[in-house]
Amino acid sequence: MEEESSLHRDLTAAKEVIADHRDKFVFMANMFDLMIETTPNINPALASRWQSLRPSFVPEPTPAEQADLERRADEHSSGLFDEINLNT
After folding, report:
1. What does pTM read for this prediction?
2. Where is the composition biased (Basic and acidic residues) (predicted)?
């Protein structure tokens, strides 16, 4: 019982660390995507392996997460356009 409780605490702590650093995982995954897409003569086995591993680094967002991302992107873009006076 105590071993299960310890494992549960460790898993909870690990999930919190991953959640706290999710943006870094996304950035890293996007860098790898860019390198794979832009490197001439990339090893196909390497590209394939990355594509199979990528979902474990950055899972697909839920519909609610995607909607929130799109909303925040729109707000950010609008703010940038306002700053450079492109919004009318």
Report:
1. 0.51
2. 68-77
